[in-house]
Design brief:
12 helices; 15 strands; alpha/beta; eight-stranded mixed sheet
């Protein structure tokens, strides 16, 4: 068990070809075990530090050995010229899901398929905050496999099915015990602000038992009052924006005192109303890379009757106001020094697209007032910290896994340049694909 460190669709047929995707089951050269030197690139290391120009990154055994402007290339190393490129840590989704694939494939194959889609977009680690029990064992196996040798899919860490509506502390502790015995990485709960919610005593027992088993606890929430109660009981991760009212000074202080991670999931709210018409990204080749996986949902979401239903749905329309408030709270919390993590809630519900929405989420963070650098930190070291994998991932530094995103343009100049992908690397191996 990983020991936790608490932290406090019209379908555009003509573009189908542009959206086709070919992936080998093997990573591209260089072979595993070779020393590789990526030279001449601009490096954004994921910590918020100033970029390093004309830098060299030396990789050996899947890990970064050295990085800097004056690093010498070791004798015999495979040298790869990255002049004109920008290299940053590949992205980490601190709140994803793996239930989007509803095909007849086996559970394992469905999980792998979705993790490959994430990786193709440069999202090479996913913390799954809620997975059906019948998929947990397969996900745990995939997690264990990623510790040995190269992989061609995103790394996965997981919570089992979100806990909700329990009535007693005994039930709460028994549920956490069951999940811990299944070797999950984190426990997730739902607090939605209705009469069926667990009482503070019950969700406090979930948090306490999780900590006793060396696990962190994350909460789905909406309301400020629920955030306050969960913080009082020791929650580690706030898995969605606070969206009903502005965050106050006491809440900010409580978040910072426990070093609680905050995941805004702005695109989750966007998906609740954006399909009242056909969104412009339905004709974006970057989105359509995985049109084969998206087509069924795109057809549904492009249907005029479905769009009219969304336009007249009071709940869908109300979420627009909630998104505005969540965006303002994100800016307030980021300015206060709270740890912000990229998270999207993708891989569940209609129209929440794995891989693509992570890039859109980063752009929405910048629209909310974060600088491009702040948004990139949230997508790298911030998300690594919130997913409890910061010792291995999230920044470009000696000893870290060489999980890298190489771009053809600088995202600090324009955050949409995260879409200008040259290559994706996991454990020092370049993923095969069409970039």
């Amino acid at each position: 068990m990983r020991i936790a460190i608490p932290i406090a669709t019209a379908v555009v047929v003509g573009l189908v070809v542009a959206g086709s995707w070919v992936r080998s089951s093997e990573a591209q050269a260089p072979p595993a075990g070779n020393v590789v030197a990526l030279t001449g690139a601009r490096v954004i290391d994921g910590t918020g530090a100033a970029p390093i120009d004309r830098a060299t990154i030396v990789i050996s055994g899947g890990r970064i050995q050295a990085v800097g402007a004056t690093v010498a290339v070791p004798a015999g190393a495979t040298r790869i010229d990255m002049t004109g490129k920008t290299i940053l840590p590949s992205f980490i989704n601190a709140h994803g899901h793996l239930t989007a694939d509803t095909s007849d494939r086996s559970s394992r194959d469905k999980l792998i398929n979705q993790l490959r889609i994430y990786a193709d977009y440069g999202v090479t680690t996913v913390q799954v905050l809620g997975l059906p029990l019948d998929s947990v064992a397969d996900a745990v196996t995939l997690r264990e496999e990623q510790a040995h040798g190269s992989i061609d899919r995103a790394r996965v860490y997981l919570a089992a099915q979100s806990i909700r509506d329990l009535k007693t502390t005994a039930e709460a502790r028994a549920k956490v015990t069951d999940y811990a015995d299944r070797k999950v990485d984190i426990v997730k709960m739902h607090i939605v602000g209705n009469a069926n919610d667990m009482t503070p005593e019950v969700y406090g027992a979930i948090i306490d038992e999780a900590h006793r088993r060396g696990l962190r606890a994350a909460a789905h929430l909406y309301y400020l009052r629920d955030a306050k109660g969960l913080l009082d009981k020791g929650i580690d991760v706030i898995a969605h924006s606070i969206r009903d009212q502005p965050v106050d000074a006491a809440t900010i202080a409580a978040i910072k005192a426990r070093n609680v991670g905050y995941i805004p999931t702005l695109t989750r709210d966007l998906a609740q109303f954006v399909y009242e018409s056909t969104p412009p990204y339905f004709t974006d080749p970057f989105f359509l890379r995985h049109v084969d996986a998206y087509r069924k949902e795109m057809t549904l979401l492009s249907d005029p009757a479905h769009q009219e239903k969304m336009r007249t749905d009071p709940a869908a329309q109300a979420i627009k106001k909630a998104l505005d408030q969540g965006s303002r709270n994100l800016k307030t919390l980021a300015d206060a020094g709270v740890t912000i993590a990229l998270g999207t809630d993708t891989g569940t519900n209609e129209g929440q697209w794995q891989g693509y929405f992570e890039h859109l989420e980063i752009e929405m963070m910048v629209k909310a007032g974060l600088s491009p650098m702040q948004a990139l930190v949230a997508a790298t070291s911030g998300a690594a910290r919130v997913a409890n994998v910061g010792q291995q991932l999230g920044s470009i530094a000696p000893g870290k896994q060489a999980d890298l995103l190489v771009l053809n343009a600088d995202p600090l100049a324009n955050i949409r340049n995260t879409r200008q992908i040259h290559s994706v690397w996991i454990g020092g191996q370049r993923l095969a694909g069409t970039y």
